[in-house]
Every structure is written in C-alpha cells, then in structure tokens.
Write a structure and sequence with these properties.
855 residues; mainly alpha; two-stranded antiparallel sheet; GAMMA-TUBULIN COMPLEX COMPONENT; microtubule; cytoplasm; gamma-tubulin binding; GCP
C-alpha cells in the first residue's frame, strides 16, 4: 500500500476515535486531542481491532446490510430516516472509480455495529461510556485493578465488549497444561504413539502389540484389559475398520490368483485382481508416508512446534477418510464378484459406478478400465476379425461346433448371463451378427474380402484394428465401430450371395419348378409321367422318372435355364405304403448347396416339398378333368349309330351324358378358380413381396426373415397352415372325389364307345341277313332271327349300364354338393383375409349361398 493511502487511513481512524470519545456521556479526563492519554489508548485499541484476523459471521452482502438497517429504522417509526438512508446508500453504492470504496459492505457493517454499541451503552443501568473498551488506560492500571474492573463491567452489562487477554506472569496456564498431561498419563496405560503404530500395523493386515484380530467377532479389537479412555477405544475401533477391509480384499486377491488359470477365474477376474492390486499399491505408499510421520513424537498441548509431521489418532482418522471409502467399495465388489466371472462380473461392477460422489465415480471408472480391457478386446477381435478369443467362456457370444449349413443359425448365440449392463441388447445383437457374417464369409463362402471391409470400418469409426484401441467409457466409439463394421460386412455378404452364388436366380428356379410356376414344363411332365404314375408305387423306377424329367426339360423352355440350376433339379420318390400309386410318392427336389443351404435348410425344403405335393395334387386333378373333357367331347360320343336304338334308351343316354357334363362343369369351375387363386393370389403376390424385401434387405438375417415370411405366406394362404387343417382335409376329400368322377366318366365313355361299336356291327349284320332272307325262305316254326335277339339284348344291356352309371353319377353329384358346401362354409370363418377372398371367387354369383339354408 502506498504511503499516501496509509496516511489517509490513519487520519480516518483518528477522526473516528475522536468523534466516538467526544460523544461519551461522561466528560473525559482531558480534551479529545491527539496528545491526550485516553485518545492514545483508544487509538491503539482501535488499531488492534482493525489489524486482527477476526471476521464477521455474516455474508459480505452490502445490499442485505443496508436493507437490514433500513428495515430496523422503519420498524421503530423512523420512516424519514429510512428514506434518507436509502438515498444515501444508492449514491454510495453507485460511486465507482478512483476514490470509491471497494468493501462497501464492511463500512456498512462497521457503522451498524457502532450504532448498536451506542444503543447498548445508552440503555445500560449505569452507562458512562459509549465504547467502554476504548477508554481503558492499560498503562496506568495494574493487573489486579484491571481484573477487578472486568468483573465490575460484567455486572454492569458491559460483556458485549472485546475480551482482553492479559499476560500471565505467574505461568498459571503452563502449570495447568502440565497437570492435564499428568492426568492423561494416569488415564492411559498405553501411549497414543503406540496405539497409532498398532493401527498402522493393523491396516497392513498385521496384528499389533495391543490391537489384534479376533476371529470370534471377525474384526480387530483392543483388549479390554488395557486401560484407555472410552473415546480412544472407540477411535481405535473405527480406524481398525480399514484393516478389516484390507484383510478381506487382500484375501480375495490371494485366493483368485492362487486358482488362476482356472476356468472360473478367467481373464476378466485376473484383470479385476490386477486393478485391486494397483489400488493396494497406492494404499501401501500412503501407509509408508504415515509410518514415517508416526516416528515423530506427538507434542504436548502447551508446546509450540514448528513441525506438523506427527501422527495422532485424530490425524490418522483424517488420513484414512478417503482410503476407507475406496477400501469399503472394493470389499463390496469383492463380495459381489466372488461367484461371478467374465461379462457378468464387469456388469456387476458397472452397476456400482452409478454414484453421485465424484470420488467414487472416478475410482470406479479407473477400476473398470482395467476390468473391461479383456472384454473390449474380445469385442474388437470378434467384430473386426471374426475370432472368438474366449478360452474361459467369459464372452457374451458363445460358439459351438456345427456343420457348415447350420453355422449361421446355430453356430453362435448370445449368452444373456454374460452380457454386461453397459452394452445394450440391440448392440449385442449387432455385435453377434457382425462376427457371424465374417465367419460365414470365411467358412461357407470361402471369401476373404471381409478383411479390407473391416479395415475400412475401423478407419470410418476413427479407431484402429490394433489391440487396446477400445476401453471402458468409450461406449459411443464401440457402437460407432460396430455399426460401421456391420454395415460394410453385411453389404459385402449380400453382394457375395447375390452375385457369386446367384441367390435370386435359385429362388426363382424353386418357384418355377417346385412351385410349378413353369407352365409348359409342368404340363408336359404331367403328360409323359401320367401313365407311369398310375401304376403301383413299388413298381416305379426312380431312374425312369429321372429320364422322363430330362425329357420334360428338353421339350420345354426350361432347357434355356442355367445348367447349374437344371443340374440341381431331381426326382424324389417318397416312402410308400401298401396300395400307394405313383402319384402319391412322386415329387421333385432342389439341391441347395453351401452356402445356399443356410437359407434352404432341411426344414425349409420339407415345407417346399409339402407345398409341391399340394400343388401337384391340384395339377393332377386339373389334368384329370381336362382328360375327362377330351373323352366327353360331343363329336366323340354322338353318332348316327344311336339312331336305331329305342327312344327310351336314347333318352337315358342323353340324360346320363348331360348329368356327367353338369358335374364336370361344377368341378371344373371349382378347380379353375382354386388354381387361379393359388397361382396368382398366393404364389405371385408372395413372390412380389419377397422380391421387394430382398432389395431392401441389409443383412443376412433380413434375408432369412424375408424368405421365412415368403414361405409362411404361401403355407398359410394355401390352406396348409395349422389353423386351416380341417379345411385342408376337406379339400383333399374333394380332390379324391373329383378323381373318382374321372374314373366314372372314363367308364361311361368306354361303355358308350363299346355300344357304338356293337351297334355298328349289328347294322352290318342286319344288312347281310336281309340279303339272305330274300334268297331263301325260313321255316315258319323257327324262332326269331339272331339279329332280332341280339339287338334286344344289346338295348337291354345298354339300358342297364346307363341306369347304373346315372345312379352312380347322381351319388357323386350329391356327395360333391355336400362336400363343397362344407368346404365353402368354412372359408368365411378363416382368419386370413385371402381365404375369405377365395370364397368370394368361388361363390361370385351367390349360387352356393342360395343353396345353403339360412343364408
């Protein structure tokens, strides 16, 4: 401070003291001037107050102090003075720059205290001084008079002044300190230095001289036979908690490291023990410092020492505050993780990191960086290299040996028990799929382009492929790396499947051949295998069927397909039982090799086979109706040969043919609409949706899901689902009835053809007999001629045959009507909307609805 400012402050203090002395109600012994002894004593006392380190117990807020003073004036009814104070304070507070006061609140506080002191002095019973402490003459008063006056002031109410501590010429304070030390020694059998040293031993897991571990109470105790104050005993017990916690943590480390490399320990457990050991190393360093300080003696209360490097129990409690928090947390983690390992251990430790205390949070973060290091290395190796470096089964991705076709679906899975809580379930699924994609490319596709893709993903994520590039607390970086790697590797995998292995072309081939979408091929195959498949199943050769399949391929547009696709199409003869025909056991199969068998698994191909059998039966029924129509053509069964038959036989023949034609029309209407529904509403719509989903698929899981959805859609809409089982059975009963009708129609046509042949033969015979009768005359006694007898028998047999066929056709018609009505009645209650649309197609004119009662 400059000399001019110092002089200014000195003058202000002198002026303040002078004014205070002049306002005393009792006249001073001398006029208040700088040379007066009272003035000099009061000035020295004022400087003692100003130079002391005493601070007020209020917040340094000038506005609050001013408001308090103003409120006090207003309470006493001095509103004008309160307004004047407010104006003066506004001017005082707004003044800044040179000459202004910085500590405005201090000035206001000083003025407030002086005002209150003045009021106390005025209200005292025998007030003679404004500030009595400022009027003391310390030089003229002896110690005895000074003490007596102090007692008098307390009686008069002057105990609001500042207490003056006088000198102690008789060393009474030192004598009292010595007596206190002797009393402490009498109460303590053991010195505090010895107890401090014992506590330091205990904190290292070593029994001290007086503080030892008691297994009965599971803790360190100070023997009851040792005479120490109760407060000291409590303090020692609190400090020994750190030793008990240390003993637990140290024992866990020794136990785990003694079992390593056991499978129940693992690399994460080893990293946890290493992190605990690092914390204990810092703890050992602290104990070394404290032991050095414990060598210094504890000074007495009365001794003044320049060195503070001594250790008492109270100081030790301050030193142990932070280590106790850490050690207590480590003990909790040790108890929690004793039966855990791998990702489960890391997740359990992570739960304790969610703490509001910055000390605990930072400690847990440092601990988790060590513990999670092996786990993050496993994630990096799996995501970027596809390597599962998990010797002790600690990773949340588990692998198992399977065949190549089952690698994607069954080779790897998530172990929920090993998934740490700081890795979300969607992120874990993406991690699993990324590593699976690499292994699928390497094992099933024999592709190595994923390595460059993984390097690009690491560069895009801002990390490297080196070990240790990821750690705890970098969850965002981990997620970015996984997202980038998954995006690039999945894209590369789909490119390999679409381009190199032609997945889309194979799906289309299955649709064309197994789902009978190639019309000319299916029709020609039906034509050439029909006669063979009508034979008993045990007489049919699969080699012969394979030859007929080749003939159908060469005779249709299928011959222009990729030879690799045609080579995969094969004949499969199902197991047959007694009475089975070739139609019941014949089927086609498609050989899906690696890696296509990941999509077209055995279960998937079994569903395709079921669909093929249904479609093959439907095509067989359609083919049977077409064959029946060919034999029932009017120009084949109507001829002038029937003109010579009796009128009744002729009417019966036309009625039977008409009835057969009506039944055929009804069955053809049903089969045609069902065939249209299956081929267009089911197969084509499902294929269109599947094609669109293939275009937007981002990974192999999306592709598998799209294909499963495509296959499920076909199964459900084709009445092959579990919910349509009764409908499926009704439909196959109808198919069998239609095939039975075909056999009756064939019998009817064969009978008509035979009747035509015999009628023609009878006409020729009658012409020959007429010529012979004109040449010779028969005996009148001879019976009728052979022609007349043969014609009657032929007409009789024709009538019986037509009557039987008409009756059988009528039974078929009635049975078909009942079965069809039962089938149609089940369609509206089906849950799938497309099956309801099938009912609309079959009963478009509401013909069947009118036939059913109550509709």
């Amino acid at each position: 401070m400059e000399e001019e400012d110092q002089q200014k402050i000195l003058d202000l203090v002198k002026e303040l003291v002078n004014r205070l002395l002049s306002q005393n109600p009792k006249p001073p012994t001398c006029n208040p001037n700088p040379n007066c002894p009272d003035f000099q004593n009061s000035l020295r006392y004022a400087f003692r107050i100003l130079s002391s380190r005493l601070t007020p117990s209020i917040a340094p807020d000038a506005a609050a102090i001013a408001e308090s003073i103003k409120r006090g004036l207003a309470t006493k009814g001095k509103s004008s003075q309160a307004l004047t104070l407010a104006e003066l304070y506004n001017k005082f507070a707004s003044k800044t720059g040179p000459g202004s006061i910085n500590n405005k609140w201090a000035v206001l506080y000083l003025l407030k205290i002086i005002s209150e002191d003045k009021k106390i002095a005025q209200n005292a019973p025998n007030s003679t001084l404004l500030l009595p402490n400022l009027g003391l003459n310390e030089l003229d008063l002896s110690n005895e008079s000074r003490i007596s006056r102090d007692f008098k002031r307390r009686e008069k109410g002057y105990d609001n002044g500042v207490l003056l501590v006088s000198k102690d010429p008789e060393n009474l304070l030192e004598i009292a300190f010595r007596e206190f030390v002797n009393l402490v020694k009498e109460e303590n059998e053991v010195s505090e230095e010895v107890l401090v040293r014992d506590v330091l031993y205990v904190c290292q897991g070593i029994d001290g001289k007086y503080v030892k571990f008691d297994a009965n109470v599971d803790g360190y105790v100070l023997s009851d036979s040792i005479k120490v104050p109760r407060a000291t005993r409590v303090m020692v017990r609190k400090l020994c908690e750190l030793g008990w916690l240390f003993r637990k943590v140290k024992g866990y480390i020794s136990e785990i490291m003694g079992r390593f490399p056991a499978e129940d320990v693992g690399t994460v457990g080893q990293a946890f023990c290493a992190a605990l050991q690092d914390e204990l190393s810092d703890y050992y360093r602290l104990l070394a410092v404290l032991e050095a300080q414990a060598m210094n003696p504890i000074p007495l209360v009365s001794e003044l020492t320049s060195s503070v490097n001594y250790l008492s129990l109270r100081r030790l409690s301050i030193w142990f505050a932070e280590p106790t928090v850490k050690m207590r947390l480590m003990a909790v983690l040790v108890d929690k993780c004793r039966v855990l390992r791998g990702g489960a251990m890391a997740g359990a430790i992570h739960l304790h990191a969610r703490h509001g205390d910055p000390l605990v949070h930072e400690f847990m973060r440092s601990l988790l960086q060590h513990v999670c290091s092996p786990l993050f290395e496993m994630v990096r190796s799996w995501v970027l290299e596809g390597e599962l470096e998990d010797i002790f089964a600690e990773f949340f991705v588990v692998g198992q040996p399977v065949k190549a076709e089952s690698l994607w679906r069954e080779g790897y899975r998530l172990h929920a028990g090993m998934l740490p809580s700081f890795i979300s379930q969607p992120l874990a699924q993406r991690i699993l799929r990324t590593g699976k994609s690499i292994n699928f490319l390497r094992v099933c596709c024999d592709d190595h382009g994923w390595a460059d893709t993984a390097t690009e993903a690491a560069a895009a994520a801002g990390t490297t492929t080196r070990r240790g590039s990821l750690g705890y607390g970098e969850t965002d970086a981990l997620e970015t790396l996984v997202v980038e790697a998954a995006k690039r590797i999945d894209k590369h995998l789909l490119d390999v499947m679409y381009t190199r292995y032609k997945f889309k072309e194979h799906c289309l081939a299955i649709k064309r051949y197994l789902l009978l979408g190639q019309g000319d091929f299916v029709q020609y195959l039906m034509d050439i295998v029909g006669q063979e498949l009508s034979e008993p199943a045990n007489t049919i050769s699969s080699f012969q069927m394979a030859g007929l399949l080749e003939s159908a391929i060469r005779s249709s547009n299928a011959q222009y397909d990729d030879p690799d696709i045609l080579d995969r199409l094969r004949v499969k003869m199902l197991p047959h039982g007694t009475g089975d025909r070739g139609w019941d056991v014949f089927s086609l199969e498609y050989d899906a090799r690696v890696p296509l068998d990941t999509v077209f698994t055995e279960s998937v191909m079994a569903r395709y086979l079921r669909i093929f059998n249904f479609l093959w039966k439907l095509r067989r029924v359609e083919h049977a109706l077409i064959g029946a129509w060919k034999t029932m053509k009017p120009n084949c069964i109507t001829s002038h040969s029937f003109t010579k038959l009796q009128h009744a036989v002729k009417l019966q023949l036309l009625s039977t043919l008409r009835r057969c034609q009506v039944i055929w029309n009804q069955m053809n209407h049903f089969v045609t609409n069902l065939q249209y529904y299956i081929m267009f509403e089911v197969l084509e719509v499902s294929w269109s949706n599947f094609s669109n989903e293939m275009e937007v698929a981002k990974d192999l899981d999306d592709l598998l899901a799209a294909h499963d959805k495509y296959l499920h859609s076909i199964v459900e809409k084709s009445l092959l689902g579990e919910r349509s089982h009764s409908l499926y059975k009704s439909l196959f009963v109808l198919f069998d009835l239609i095939l039975r009708f075909r056999s009756h129609a064939d019998r009817l046509c064969e009978g008509i053809y035979e009747l035509q042949a015999r009628t023609r033969a009878s006409s020729l015979s009658s012409q020959d007999n007429s010529k012979s009768r004109r040449q010779t005359r028969d005996d009148p006694s001879e019976p009728g001629s052979w022609f007349s007898d043969g014609r009657k028998a032929l007409e009789q047999r024709a009538g019986e045959f037509l009557q039987n066929m008409g009756r059988e056709l009528e039974e078929i018609s009635k049975e078909y009507t009942v079965l069809l009505e039962g089938f149609l009645s089940q369609l509206p209650v089906q849950q799938h909307v497309d099956l309801k649309f099938l009912f609309f197609r079959l009963d478009f004119t509401e013909f069947y609805s009118r036939l059913r009662p109550g509709t």
